[in-house]
Amino acid sequence: MVLLVTSGAVAKAPPFIAAALCMVLLVTSVAVAKAPPFEQLSKAAVLSGKFAAEDHPELRKRGPFYIRGDVWERYKALKACARDPACSGLKRPMGIVTCSMFRGYRQQKNRWLGEMKERRGRFRLEIDRVDNILRYLALPGTSRHHWGTEVDLAWNRQCMMSNHQYMSAEENTRRCDRSNARCLAKGISPKICRQRDRFCWRRVGPGVKFYNWLRDNAGRFGFCQPYKGYPEERHGPLFTRGYEPERWHWSSCCEARRNLNAIAKLLDQVVPPPADVFGRQPMRIKGKREALMEVHQTVVVDAVRQHIFNIHAECLTCAVDCGD
Ligand SMILES: [Zn+2]
Q: What is the distance in A from the centroid of ligand 1 to the CA of 145?
């Protein structure tokens, strides 16, 4: 209807206004063509978050976030238990704060490219920037947050999502020793390596009790930690890469495992295009474009596979009966 009215208006309008109206029509039809109805999206598009959250039939809006309805029910039960000393076994009620849930492709891409830009001064090569960001942030299209099954949790509204905040003194010492050894292995001086981690002096993190309770109890409610422990320890020599520990990140095991099984068959379709990894600008530079395409083929494609599948075994087995 709107289109018909606008078409009539184009025919009657003076030439320059008609041209402007045609542009509007063109832009509108391109925008319409870019967003097919949710039911027409491929499985790979859905798994990589290429849709508007409000269009997904299983996602529900809860506060500022979207999450799958069934995952929300599990999460609500977990939160209720933590608040109730009779259920939690804690002396006092423990609050759980949600820091992130569903994230779409565009949101992840913007965040990713923002991190790439921020590292321009520190890392000369694009591939080194990619490696550095991949310690914690997923490439667009490959984040478990696209599935609506993941929650990032903290004990207060500041959402201080750094591992040392959730660690005991011993755990933090081990974390520091590991990062120091990795730094030295790169041939960097001991003095510089020591300065790299500002948080190695800290003792017990304020979120250690919070984390320990989740570690011991979240399984009962169907949650698991995909990025538990260090990546090299999750499956031994099977993987050489993977995300660093993320003590704030929890998965609804059954729903996430179904998505993981589905994505295994569609892996080549969820790898983001080079422009979404390195940014449009570098891809436009002649000579550089070819070099980056090569890096994309040889390194990024493999990194996607390793980062998606190098998850802790507790998210492969699931502590609850998934009925599948
Ligand atoms: Zn997360």
A: 6
Instruction: Give the Å distance between the CA of 249 and the centre of ligand 1.
Output: 4
Architecture of the domain spanning 59-168+204-317: 2-Layer Sandwich (3.30)
Contacts of 100 (CB under 8 A, 6+ apart): 65, 145, 150, 151, 152
* Rounded-to-integer distance, Cα 9 and Cα 129, Å: 51
Positive or negative: CA dihedral 270, 271, 273, 277: positive
Give the distance from CA 172 to its chain's centroid.
24
Question: Does pTM top 0.85 for this prediction?
Answer: yes
- In the chain, domain spans: 59-168+204-317
pLDDT in tens, 280-312: 999 999 999 999 999 999 999 999 999 999 999
**8 A C-beta contact, residue 135 and residue 303:** no
Report CA(14)–ligand 1 centroid distance (Å): 54
- Ligand 1 centre and the CA of 153: distance in Å? 8
Type and span of the H or E element at 34: helix 15-34
Strand runs labelled E in 138-226: 150-154, 223-224
Ligand 1 centre and the CA of 16: distance in Å?
Answer: 50
Residues in a beta bridge with 153: 98
For residue 152, the CA-to-ligand 1 centroid distance in Å is: 5
